[in-house]
UniProtKB/TrEMBL annotation:
It comes from Labrys wisconsinensis. It comes from the Bacteria. This is Alkylation response protein AidB-like acyl-CoA dehydrogenase. Residues 8-118 form the Acyl-CoA dehydrogenase/oxidase N-terminal domain. The keyword Ribonucleoprotein does not apply.
Amino acid sequence: MSRLDDFTDEEREILSTVRRFVAREVRPHVARLEREGAYPEALVAAMAGLGLFGMAVPEAHGGLGLRLPVFARVMELIAAGWTTLAGYLNSHSTVCHLVAAHGTEEQKARLLPALAEGRERGALCLTEPAAGSDLRAIETRAVPCPEGYRLSGRKIFVTNGGRATLLAMLARTPAPAAEPKRDISLFLVAKNTDGISVAGTFHKMAYDLVDTVEILAEDAPVSPADLLGGRAGAGLGQLLDGLELGRIAIAASAVGLAASALAEARRYASERRAFGVTIDQHQAIQLRLADMATRLVAARLLTAEAARARDTGARADMLSGMAKLFASEACLAIVDDALRIHGGYGYIADYAIERLYREAPLYIVGEGTNDIQKLVIARRLSDPADAAIMDLPQ
């Protein structure tokens, strides 16, 4: 059985439901929604009604509790319909996973049910002006005080930060003398906390309806109950675990965007005529389509394998990095080929490929740039045990 069809009957029904939602309620309206530029309240509510904000929340706390291969496939299907919707789910799901995997029982009971329903929305506050890929360079600090901590710092590129209600914020805390590197912690901060504010919005080349903001923390009070897992100094390890899920989600979303670009290219090539025939009869176009389809399937399979490995508990940091790297680069190449097939029409906003072409670069820089992924993979290769996991030659 293919990794792409290794689902239970219940999981297949979930995927069928998502396909119907995308086909009926999303795809026919994307061009209008992009043109109008209004936040798609109805579609977000519909996703909440389908339980999609609870994909990474265990059933015991009101979520769908999807296996990671199913989660990845849902992300692909949503992104193939409209990548903006996948953007609403990605970082939120990572926050859900962080709470479910590392939270205290009190934090799980308090936060997960509302996150699963979409009544609360999560966002990751990681990047700073001087700390992007190197998260150990963050300057945001949580200073201990009698009530818990006082949080101060500046976070940028916070996806969904404008509409989020719960911020997972990485900050420095005092480290034990014996463990000086244990000085980074994760806090679960309500956005309406005194001292937390949205300082500005970043305007991007695409994804205008996915808000990307700057968050300021100015002596914001946080209690010990806001410290993820109740463990100071564990934040970096907790975050890296969550980012594995995030990278699989990014890879799956890139596959979905690429699938949409291939579909647009095939449709256009079957309608556009040149030299007496539709252009899909020309060998040059056929060769390009063959490369696009091959890249798409390879990216989908690698993403599915990363999701399967992670779901079984196997070490998957290298594999999830490979999936994110390969899928995002494949997506960029497929979208570029799709634009070439469209010719001048691909540059016109009336055609979907113009939007997809602007959206694709996000995936090579989001959730850790692709150059960072290559460094992580290369370092893993230097360890025989890590290389052996993928049966790589020594």
